[in-house]
Structure formats: C-alpha cells, structure tokens
Design a protein that fits this description.
Mean pLDDT: 82
Strand content: 25-35%
Shape: globular
CATH architecture: 3-Layer(aba) Sandwich
Order of helices and strands: HHEHEEHEHEE
Strand order of the largest sheet: 2-1-3-4-6-5
Number of domains: 1
CATH superfamily: Vaccinia Virus protein VP39
Largest sheet: 6 strands, mixed
Number of helices: 5
CATH class: Alpha Beta
Number of strands: 6
Low-confidence stretches: 1-26
Helix content: 25-40%
CATH topology: Rossmann fold
Radius of gyration: 16 Å
Structural class: alpha/beta
Distance between the termini: 34 Å
C-alpha cells in the first residue's frame, strides 16, 4: 500500500514537470550519435524509450526518421507514451523484445531500477543507452523532482553489473547554477 502511494506521488510530481517547461525539447545529441554509430538507417530495429516525458515526439521522430520502431513508456498521465505505467511494475514485455533500451535521466529517479528486467527485454547483443547525473553535478535543477541518484562511478558499476559489456563516459555542460555532469552508459547484453 505504501509503495502505491509513493508511485502516485511520483506520478503527480512528474506530471507537473512534464506540463511545465522543465524538460528538454530536442533529442540528446549524445543519443543521436549513439543511434547513428550503432544502427544503420532503415534497419529493422525496435527501441524502448523509458521515461519518454512530454517530448517523446522528438525521440520518436528521430527514430522513425531513421526507419526504426519505438515503444515509449512513462508513468505520468500527460506523457507522450504508448504505455502509461511505472517501469518497475511493467511485466508485459517478452524476453528479447528490443534491440535497444533508452533511459535519459529517468532511472536515476527510481530507487531500485529494474536493470535485470530491462536486460531480459533486450535481444542478445542488444544495447542499453543510459544517461544519469554524477555525484559531481550541481543539484539545483533537481529541486522538486523527488528522489534522484547522483551516482559515483562505483555505484554505476554496481547498478549495471548484470550486463556483459559496459562502456561508461562523461558528459557536461554549464548552466547558470553551475556545471551539470552526466554519466553516459552503453551496456550490451
């Protein structure tokens, strides 16, 4: 019962953020490069966008422009998603359903993200692209967003331990409040 209440609070927080101007309006450049590097245009690729938010149309547009398919999931009622459900409670995907799963600053807001479950949804050799704040990032932009893991490198390694191959990089950009630092994780099943 308490968990359900937490999810509802989480949905209310994110629904407010989604309907405000606080979300990015273009696909993340690093993600665009990842897609271009890994998937030839027009190949039969199916993506899962975890936490699509209100701007899923930008990610979906990018993916469809390249001839791929995408399923978007987000728990917020106003999100542009195919499935409105918390990622931790999803059990409708069969194993080996997706070529790639995308998480851009979503699972960092989940205390116990279902990494093992996400891995099972990936086809053999499938990739998981994730971006999340580091422990060095400025925290001001996280106000009002509830729980957020600003992870150390050790925490990232432990979290993505189920994957066979892991590449971890860093990204940063300045804001008025200070520097934003993000982990860029590419995991392969």
């Amino acid at each position: 019962m308490v968990r359900l209440q937490v999810f509802r609070l989480h949905e209310m927080i994110w629904d407010g953020i989604i309907t405000s101007t606080r979300q990015a309006t273009e696909p993340e450049t690093i993600f665009v490069r990842f897609v271009d590097r890994n998937y030839p245009i027009g190949s039969k690729v199916h993506f899962l966008d975890i936490g699509s938010g209100r701007n899923a149309n930008h990610t979906v547009w990018l993916i469809h422009k390249r001839g791929f398919n995408v399923t978007a999931i987000d728990s917020a009622p106003s999100a542009l998603a195919h499935i409105h459900q918390d990622i931790c409670s999803v059990d409708s995907f069969a194993p080996d359903s997706f070529d790639c799963c995308i998480d851009i600053n979503t699972l960092c807001h989940v205390e116990d993200p279902p990494i093992e479950k996400i891995k099972t949804w990936l086809k053999p050799g499938g990739k998981f692209f994730s971006m999340a704040p580091t422990n060095e990032t400025v925290r001001g932009h996280l106000e009002g967003k509830g729980y957020c893991r600003c992870a150390t490198s050790e925490q990232i390694l432990k979290l993505y331990e189920p994957f066979d191959h892991l590449e971890i990089g860093l990204s940063s950009y300045p804001t008025k409040a200070g520097q934003i630092y993000s982990w860029v994780i590419e995991a392969t099943k």
